[in-house]
Amino acid sequence: MRGAVLHAPRDVRVEDRPDPTIEKPTDAVIRLAATCVCGSDLWPYRGIEPISGPTPMGHEYVGVVEEVGHQVTTLTPGQFVVGSFFASDNTCEICQAGHQSRCVHAELMGAIGTQSQYARIPLADGTLVATPEMPSEDLVPSLLAASDVLGTGWFAAVAAEAGPGKTVAVVGDGAVGLLGVLAAQQLGAERIVIFSRHESRQALARQFGATDIITSRGDDGVAEIKELTNGLGAHSVIEAVGTQESMMQAIRATRPGGHVGYVGVSHDVSLPGGELFFSAVHLHGGPAPVRRFLPDLIDRIYTRRIDPGRVFDLTLPLQQAAEGYQAMDQRRATKVLLTV
Ligand SMILES: [Zn+2]
Fold first, then answer.
1. From CA 44, how far away is CA 51, in angstroms rounded?
2. C-alpha dist (Å) from residue 337 to 150, 252, 274, 313, 324
3. Ligand 1 centre and the CA of 289: distance in Å?
4. Residue partners of 199: CB distance under 8 A and separation at least 6
5. pTM for this prediction
6. Other beta carbons less than 10 A from residue 295's beta carbon
7. What's the maximum distance between 2 C-alpha atoms anywhere in the chain?
8. Number of DSSP helices (H) and strands (E) in the chain, helices first
């Protein structure tokens, strides 16, 4: 099969990779319908996260079940399925409590590499959710978004306790931040403020439900959100970047007693204990347990209540994955869909 492999910083090649097979009786093999490039793929692409050799890429996927291991009971070949970036059994105590990304048997799909024609999915019964029927073509981008960016934005909004009567602020206008806006809107937030300097992203944020845009960052951005909230700060803040500056901006933008949902993959963030102590905010986040939300998200997509697939602003065939990485690296695209 063909698959994207990172050889060195900024050197992605689509090349022959071994066809995946059933390795454990709980595995499935799927044929990808679509996959995409994630903001977090840019960390190794830019050389900020070192790689130890040629590395298969990708952890977002939707597709059709080709084959299942003999212990897989809930899936059959031919079904269209959505999974997330961690395989999980969905039965252990951690999964049952809704934290499937930290399942005691979790396996990172990025290590398998789903920017490819086929992929082996571990713990298939727990990991994959089948759609009610074969989706029409126009639903595929939204189902793919559910696999990571929507599920992550959704978790951030839930962790930040977005809901009726709440002012929600969103730090980060990448795909996750934009879908955090959509999640906050769906969860009934009263006011949704996004920090963004990009016109096209501001426009999409408005379509997803943002009521206010703040173009300042850091302490200036914090001052503006306080102005909008009688000096108090937002009830709920979504952090979707993962840097020291964005994390501090999120904490400082939150009112005492408010909630920060942080989902930007943390890179060299260290929190000052004294400031955290006196901020009196709740912090909850980490790798999103997307699996918890998939059945609900698939239902919202099938009933066309949400259209998160609009976050993809460039579609390319898998064979041109390198161009997709370049476009995201150079910020010519927010989120790239690769058709398989
Ligand atoms: Zn588990």
1. 7
2. 14, 34, 43, 8, 8
3. 11
4. none
5. 0.96
6. 12
7. 60
8. 12, 18
Q: Are 229 and 168 in contact (CB under 8 A)?
A: no
Ligand 1 centroid vs 265 CA: distance in angstroms?
21
Q: How far is the CA of 282 from the centre of ligand 1 (A)?
A: 25
Distance 98 CA to ligand 1 centre (A): 9
pLDDT confidence band for 322 (50 / 70 / 90): very high
Cα separation, 68 vs 50, whole angstroms: 34
User: In angstroms, rounded to a whole number, what is the distance separating the alpha carbons of residues 138 and 313?
Assistant: 14
Phi, psi at 55, each rounded to 5°: -125, 120
pLDDT band at 103 (very low <50, low <70, confident <90, very high): very high
Give the end-to-end CA distance of the chain in Å, rounded to a whole number. Answer: 11
d(CA 185, CA 209): 6
Only one residue has tokens 């952090």, namely 239
- How remote is the CA of residue 88 from the centroid of ligand 1, in Å? 5
Residue 90, SS3 per DSSP: coil
The amino acid at residue 197 is R
Tell me, in angstroms, the distance from the centre of ligand 1 to residue 296's CA.
19
Q: What is the mean pLDDT of the chain?
A: 97
Unique residue bearing structure tokens 């399942």: 103
CA of 147 relative to ligand 1 center, distance in Å: 18
Ligand 1 centroid from CA 59, angstroms: 18
Calculate how far, in angstroms, residue 95's C-alpha sits from the geometric centre of ligand 1. 4
Residue type, 73: T
Q: 60 C-alpha to center of ligand 1: Å?
A: 19
Cα of 97 from ligand 1 centre, angstroms: 9
